Amino acid sequence: SAVIAWAVVNIVALGRATGSILRENYRSVLAAGNMIYALDRQDRGVLLAVGGDHESGIREFRDNEAAFLEWLGRAKDNITIPGERTVVEAIESGYAEYRSSLPELIDLQTRGLAPGPDWQHYRTSMHDASAKVRDACLRLHDLNEATMYAASAHASHVAGRAIWSTTLVAFSSLLAALMFSQAFAERMTRPLRRFVSASRRISSGDYVVQVPVEGGKELRHLAREFNEMATKLRHYQQMNIGQIIAEQEKGEAILSSIEDGLIVFDPGLNVTTMNPAARHLLHLESDGRTGLTCEDVLRTPSACELVRQTVAQGVQPEMPDEARVIAVPGKRGTRQYLMSATAVRGRVQGLHGVVVLLRDITRLREVERLKSDFIMAASHELRTPLTGLAMSIDLLLERERENSTNGDRELLRVAHEEVHRMQALVNDLLDLSRIEAGKIEMEFERVSASSLFHRVQGIFRGQVETKAVELTATVAPDLPDIRADATKITWVLTNLISNALRYVNQGGRITLSAELIGRHVHVVVRDDGPGIPVEYQMRIFEKFVQVEGREGGGTGLGLAICKEIIRAHGGTIWVDSTPGQGSTFTFTVPVAA
């Protein structure tokens, strides 16, 4: 109370000092400034009138005349310091002289006299009168400003004295209050420390804790509510701990029963969970280390890169199955696993981690290899008798061309076509099996896309002229050479163009193009034919898949062979098609180093 009372006394004294500044001097300073502004505007009106704009000049002079007289009146009403009255009277008399020159100037203007010596005389006389008034206004401004500075110094002295005296009183009061508050705080914080101690015991799992109900009314009410909360938490913990343990055991049992390897990574690619199957296939049964990372368990660089991209994108990136196969050596040989990554997301916290599933496909790969070997062997064995049969039918057609009846000749022709179709099928099967088994050697070389386009254009020159189809080729400027087997890539282009010619209408168009994207050249074969139905676009590169209802005449193996050839080059092939608007086949080939 003492500090407040003394502060109020000092504030009142300071308020008086500053109030005198505002009350006695600031109004006169403000009046002087506004009179100068109004006088400048009147001078501008005089200049407008002299320059020929008589009406606007006189209007502006009259408008600012009222403002000047208003502020002059305020200055006369606020004369508070010695010498101020003399200055105000000088302003009033000078302004009267300034105004008296205006009628003569207006009279010259109304008589239509041209500007001359008289004009210059009046303009000079008004300018001199205006300068006297302005000087008087500045003296009024400076006089009040000097008085304000003196009052401000006095206010600063009062403020300094108030600060020191208030500080002294406050320090004395603070010392007394500190001694009182220390005793009072000890009495008040004792129950709060009990609440803090009890809260820490509850957070550590001790739900039996109780707080004594004592102290004031509010503290007793808080203690009763706290004890009730602790009791409910104890009951809830006793009720749910068994269920939580059961669910945890159930989850561990499910993970243990999964035959495929399962690994859970956090967003930092650290292992958080691994089922027994994963430990077995990765030979980590005896590894008791903790804090394993992706590189510790999946030693294939592409595997950890897949996990890293899944964490970055939130979903597993699109890639062919072959890129997701990892090989793990073991005592009984190397086994192959198909890897899939699934991002685990929470409703609030975002990405929690990535679940990696390792599926053993060693047996499937072995079955696929045996199937390819069988097809290759069967095709090889069928080729010899089919060749002999085709030659025999060809000889019969030559010898019996004149002697046989029309019916016999038709039967021989049908047999000839079917045998040659079977030969094409067996040859395609044999080529496909050899490519899948890696038994066809690729003769890689540097080759330009333009030379490949020129070669296939020459092959189909006669066919496109016969069907009146336009076959064009465009190559991006400065396109680098590719690393490819020119014969095999020519075969791929030939197959794609042949399919397009088979289905494009007369007068249609087939376009070849190539451009560089990244480290691969994208080769595109586009036609304006009937397109491919959506349900066939994902299966068109499988063996023996043909669009129903179309007379193709092929074996259904051409696109499958194209896919294997491109894959052997380290590229991919796909199709984009809209039914009724044509098809676009695209494959990639790496750039030559």
Order of helices and strands: HHHHHEEHHHEEEHHEHHEEHEEHHEE
Kindly name the structural category.
Answer: alpha+beta
Model regions low in confidence, pLDDT < 50 over at least 5 residues: none
* Relative strand content: 5-15%
Major sheet characteristics: 5 strands, antiparallel
First-to-last CA distance? 90 Å
Number of strands: 12
How do the strands of the widest beta sheet line up side by side? 2-1-5-4-3
What does this structure look like?
There is one protein chain. The chain has 593 residues and is of the alpha+beta class. The longest helix is centred in the N-terminal third of the chain and has 87 residues. The model has no long low-confidence stretch (mean pLDDT 75). A 5-stranded antiparallel beta sheet has the order 2-1-5-4-3. Helix 3 packs across helix 4 and helix 13 packs antiparallel against helix 15.
